[in-house]
């Protein structure tokens, strides 16, 4: 449904250096599938999501929707955005405080000239769990709870009947009691409407509860991917192991040293080796310092890019 093929996104930096925010990513989201893109802040998750939405143009590589390369001309990009919609992290920040719920949800259908506006808005609010929808038409964001505001944001995306949702930390700003409701809503939308979703998150617990497949990103590149159960119960990459170690049920805490490297100065060899707990404990790991790892492919099978992982890397 949605595919990134060797996508690279670079930004200009100080001193003429280029920051490689996304550095050779292959990723697919199949119809009806929920994929979790996980990693710490600054790893390139949001830049990749923006590129998949057509908000950023890749420096090289290609984004495709339904087998067709994404066109950046106005009319075709507008048609694409009806099919792929964004759900933002902070509903209070993404909703206009001067707009009613009706106006917020109706904005997309008006831009795209959809008929029967009131019915479209009511149906979208109902699917997002705000019933009866008419009760919410004239309310303002400050009159709603955090969970209700996030449902309004989701309704705004659903109003255009998309095939794919890209959700950037969709429950990060919500109370724990509400998080489960929003995750259940996303699963129900997948089951009822056949929606696919890419969920961007740093929370592996969220990925476990909602995702069919997980892609772990570090410093602009996916370093491990596969079915959720395989990746989260038997992580092969030391970075994935470290991310999982912060969960309450983890028997051992792995503390990574230092901060993520500067994306204008990608380390040679394995980009994770300066912080890697396996590399630090290994006497003979010259390949980690000097030998680049191949980019992972877009397969659904488990794969890992690591010289020290117990399974082979995938070229």
TrEMBL record:
Q: Identify the SMART domains for this entry.
A: AAA
Q: Does the keyword Transmembrane helix apply?
A: no
Q: What name is this protein filed under?
A: ABC transporter ATP-binding protein
Any one of the GO BP annotations? transmembrane transport
Q: Which Pfam families match?
A: ABC_tran (PF00005), oligo_HPY (PF08352)
Any idea where the ABC transporter domain is?
Answer: 2-244
Under the heading PANTHER family, the entry gives: D,D-DIPEPTIDE TRANSPORT ATP-BINDING PROTEIN DDPF-RELATED, TRANSPORT ATP-BINDING PROTEIN
GO MF term set: ATP binding; ATP hydrolysis activity
Q: Cite the InterPro entries for this sequence.
A: AAA+_ATPase, ABC_transp_ATP-bind, ABC_transporter-like_ATP-bd, ABC_transporter-like_CS, Oligopep_ABC_C, P-loop_NTPase
Similarity comment text for this entry: Belongs to the ABC transporter superfamily.
Keyword annotations from UniProtKB, A to Z: ATP-binding, Nucleotide-binding, Transport
């Amino acid at each position: 449904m949605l595919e990134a093929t060797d996508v690279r996104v670079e930004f200009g930096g100080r001193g003429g250096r280029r920051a490689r925010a996304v550095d050779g990513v292959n990723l697919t989201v199949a119809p009806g599938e929920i994929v979790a893109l996980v990693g710490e802040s600054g790893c390139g998750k949001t830049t990749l999501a923006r590129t998949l939405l057509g908000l950023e143009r890749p420096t090289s590589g290609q984004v495709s929707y339904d087998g067709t390369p994404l066109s950046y001309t106005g009319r075709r990009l507008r048609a694409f955005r009806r099919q792929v919609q964004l759900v933002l992290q902070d509903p209070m920040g993404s909703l206009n405080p001067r707009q009613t719920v009706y106006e917020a949800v109706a904005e997309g259908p008006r831009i795209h000239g959809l008929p029967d506006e009131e019915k479209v808005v009511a149906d979208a609010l109902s699917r997002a769990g705000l019933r009866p929808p008419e009760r919410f038409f004239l309310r303002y964001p400050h009159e709603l709870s955090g969970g209700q505001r996030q449902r309004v944001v989701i309704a705004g995306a659903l109003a255009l009947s998309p095939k794919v949702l890209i959700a950037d930390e969709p429950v990060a700003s919500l109370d724990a009691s509400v998080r489960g409701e929003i995750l259940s809503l996303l699963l129900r939308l997948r089951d009822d409407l056949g929606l696919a979703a890419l969920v961007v998150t740093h929370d592996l617990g969220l990925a476990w509860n909602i995702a069919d497949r997980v892609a772990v990103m570090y410093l602009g590149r996916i370093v491990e991917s596969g079915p959720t159960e395989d990746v989260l119960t038997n992580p092969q990459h030391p970075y994935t192991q470290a991310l999982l170690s912060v969960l309450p049920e983890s028997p051992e805490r792995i503390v990574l040293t230092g901060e993520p490297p500067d994306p204008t100065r990608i380390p040679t060899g394995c980009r994770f080796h300066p912080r890697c707990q396996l590399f630090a404990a290994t006497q003979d790991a010259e390949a980690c310092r000097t030998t680049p790892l191949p980019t992972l492919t877009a397969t659904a099978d488990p794969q890992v890019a690591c010289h020290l992982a117990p399974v082979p890397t995938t070229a």
